[in-house]
Design goal:
It contains 6 helices and 29 strands. The protein is an alpha+beta fold. It has 3 domains: 172 residues, no CATH class; 116 residues, Sandwich (Immunoglobulin-like), CATH 2.60.40; 107 residues, Immunoglobulin-like. The strands form 6 sheets. Strands 21, 23, 25, 27, 28 and 29 form a 6-stranded mixed sheet that branches. The chain has a 5-stranded mixed sheet with strand order 4-6-2-1-9, with no helix packed on it. β18 and β19 form a beta hairpin.
């Protein structure tokens, strides 16, 4: 009877607050007194009618009507109590603790409490009427409490199980609901559903102070990076501790050819400290790959390494995260030519050598050399296709450029273009421009005539000079 006694205390003290649900304090007090009085009248009448019926002073119908009236008044009294239950939450959130289990999973433990409040003096006037309540109401328990964790922004459930069922809580007792977080959060909404009532409480999660743990996480835990470039990992450090330690940051298991640094904005850091009341800190880890691969840095072979936070006081590991970097080679075409300016005449071929070199760190495949030329011009390229070219290797390509016989004279441009792939990806290339001065062809007879004319002129000048010298 005592648990029920406390429960009824809580019920009756709710009366001053239920006006927010549409009834005033005075109206509920009057209803409670009226239903109690009606019940007492019906009970007294039924007791009297029972005696009369046993004495055969009234009929069975009159006796049944009296009995039904008592049951009706009893139900009305119970309804009012149930109405008070439905209008006010009796479940409070005592604690909400965020912690990590041994496998590193983020979890939240919600501790619920059934309210235990009351005024014994006020309750005494109802002691004689405890018999109107059902056995379930006398038990002093609240049954079937469903608990969910809801994200404050998206309003979606972020805890598993999605609904945690607490079968019952006795008045004044505690019950725990344990969740695994599907999405990390500093604060969230605890949604409660019980007694046909829904209640939501926006709560800032408290860290488990019994553990000195620093959780390290990175969403980009695996990255592909070309040689001679850097990979940037966004690092989130979350403290699950109440201590004010300084943490030293280190990276383990990276080859010596690979350097790194931790950045806090624009500043390099090797140690961190959490400010008062701050439990989350964001940094970036920049990892620099060398320009060439070797036996330790192998192209396309993942390199696994760890980011660790050590306590500055005793060097104990407070947290770690495994990351991965995959070195990727880069194909690079270099095109060289000794001379990019030529003179020729119409119809006469210009022959030149072009050297194609792989200046990258990955094999080049399907290298094609083509030209972009003026209308009517011809080009011959040998070889037109280089099937593959390893890094630091080169091959000479012969290019013949032939202007048309009846074409115009003047300066023209021919572009030498290359294309290739590396690791099934297209490689950026650089075009080379060849400038060609085309002159008109000269007739062989005209040239011979000019030569003879020049020889005759020179001979005449010599003969005339000799004549003058003899005088």
């Amino acid at each position: 009877m005592k648990p029920f006694y406390y429960m009824l205390v809580a019920f009756l003290l709710l009366v001053p607050y239920v006006h927010a649900q549409g009834d005033s304090e005075a109206a509920l007090l009057l209803d409670l007194k009226k239903t109690r009085a009606d019940y007492e009248v019906a009970k007294q009448k039924f007791e009297n009618d029972t005696k009369l019926y046993n004495a055969k002073a009234i009929s069975a119908n009159d006796y049944d009507r009296s009995k039904n009236e008592l049951l009706s008044r009893e139900v009305d009294y119970q309804k009012l109590i149930l109405k008070l239950i439905s209008q006010q939450s009796y479940i409070t959130v005592e604690r909400a603790i965020k912690y990590q289990d041994k496998r590193g999973n983020r979890k939240v433990k919600i501790t619920l409490k059934s309210a235990l409040e009351g005024n014994e003096e006020y309750l005494n006037q109802f002691k004689d009427h405890f018999d109107v309540f059902t056995p379930e109401m006398r038990s002093g328990k609240i049954y079937n409490i469903y608990v969910s964790l809801v994200d404050n922004e998206s309003k979606t459930i972020i805890g598993t199980p999605y609904e945690y069922r607490v079968s019952s809580i006795e008045l004044g007792k505690l019950a725990d609901a344990d969740f695994e977080l599907l999405k990390d959060a500093e604060s969230l909404t605890v949604a409660l559903n019980y007694n046909n009532r829904k209640d939501e409480k926006n709560i800032y999660l408290k860290k488990d102070g019994s553990m000195s743990v620093l959780d390290i996480a990175s969403m980009q835990f695996s990255q592909e990076t070309e040689l001679n470039n850097k990979a940037v990992y966004d690092i989130t450090l979350e403290r699950f501790s109440t201590t004010d330690d300084v943490y030293r940051l280190e990276v383990k298991n990276l080859p010596r050819q690979i350097s790194y640094e931790f950045m806090d904005g624009e500043s390099k850091v090797t140690q961190i400290r959490f400010a008062q009341g701050v439990n989350v800190k964001k940094l970036s880890l920049q990892v620099y790959l060398p320009d060439r691969d070797d036996s330790e840095v192998v192209i396309d072979q993942p390199l696994k390494f760890q980011v660790e936070a050590l306590t500055a006081t005793n060097g104990e590991k407070a947290g770690s995260e495994q990351l991965e970097i995959i070195p990727r080679g880069r194909g690079k075409i270099e095109v060289r030519a000794n001379n990019l300016y030529h003179e020729t005449t119409t119809g006469k071929e210009v022959a030149m050598d072009v050297t194609v070199r792989n200046g990258g760190s990955r094999r080049l495949d399907n290298i094609r050399v083509t030209t972009e030329k003026p209308l009517g011009w011809e080009t011959v390229i040998e070889p037109a296709l280089i099937s593959s070219l390893d890094p630091e290797k080169e091959q000479v390509v012969k290019v013949s450029i032939i202007p048309p016989e009846g074409g115009g004279v003047g300066a023209q441009e021919v572009k030498i273009k290359t294309e290739a792939t590396a690791d099934n990806r297209k490689v950026d290339t650089e075009d080379k421009t060849v400038r060609i001065q085309v002159n008109a062809q000269t007739s062989i007879w005209g040239t011979l005539f000019l030569i003879l004319l020049l020889v005759g002129f020179i001979g005449g000048v010599v003969w005339f000079g000799m004549k003058l010298s003899k005088r």
